[in-house]
Amino acid sequence: MTTATQPVLRAQPLGPQWPTLDPFLFCAHHDDSYPAGDGRMGVQSVEFEGRQMGSDFSRKDGWSMYHGDSVPGFPGHPHRGFETVTLVRKGLIDHSDSLGAAARFGRGDVQWLTAGKGVVHSEMFPLLNTDQPNPLELFQIWLNLPAASKMVAPHFTMFWDERIPRLVHTDAGGKCTTVTVVAGALEGAAAALPPPPESWAAKDASDLAIWTLLLEPGATWTLPAARGKGTRRMLYFFGGEQLQIGNALADRHAALEIVAGQDWQLANTGSTPVECLLLQGQPLNEPVARYGPFVMNTEQEIMQALQDYRSTQFGGWPWPEQDPVHGNTPRRFARYPGQSEDEVPPSGNGN
């Protein structure tokens, strides 16, 4: 086995949408400094000047409305053929979907939604604070489904922040690295929560991992080698001043494709905390046909998806509005399809 001397195979700048590797399709980092709300969980209309309402991705004043009219976010829209994994670092999201599921989640929570044969959902960003700003930060990751699973039944699940495993490592100098394990096995951390049953992440052969890393200034930690031969790994360095990876120094934020088959020592050589997102997995190596919110294997399957959505609306929309929000209290909860009682985080306080 040849040992690599250079850890970084490729470096790409970070834009609004981050470059990904198969089996991942898309990664977006939303970081919006929303102002105080208007008392109805929306933005005061005076803030709309200079925005293309209905499709505002301007980041004017540090935030966007996206497709929202008064509450920012993404009103009802369809998906087929892949999964969305949404990691919320700050703020809250109100989820509603065509399965009848609903949730308010955030502050470290993760939502994992298998679109499968078709689901419609909305993702709205309620601005609950009326006397202070409403910051929102999240990652949304699209994970492809294998051809054999493209048309499985949709599946909705929540990973509450209180349940997500974390590895806290203190190095010889007393500096701390925290690894949050959304998916994948990491020695020293508790077993990851089970992904949806039809996900590529649920297959042992996938070697799939979704981790976030936080290194204190001066901290070192060894990123362990991936298990599978052929696994590919992308490390997104998005917070902090500089990150040493083996003998390579990253001094600007970037998507770094890393040699996955061996260990690499990471070191925060700057004066502020370093933050990274890691996505890794065995490629599916299948053809990808994409059209907006649909990801299939052939153009014919895309045409069928469009036809099915026009004729069935993927089961219809059970909500009175296209952009539902779930009240003006910060209580986090999830209501699963066919259920009437809410699940709340295991602390029980819902805050």
From TrEMBL:
Residues 314-351 are annotated as: Disordered. Binds 1 Fe cation per subunit. Its cofactor is Fe cation. Residues 211-315 form the Pirin C-terminal domain. It holds the Pfam family Pirin. Fe cation binds at residues 77, 79, 121, 123. CDD domains: cupin_pirin_N. GO terms for molecular function: metal ion binding. The keyword Nucleus does not apply. Keywords: Iron, Metal-binding. Residues 53-143 form the Pirin N-terminal domain. It comes from the Bacteria. Belongs to the pirin family. This is Pirin family protein.
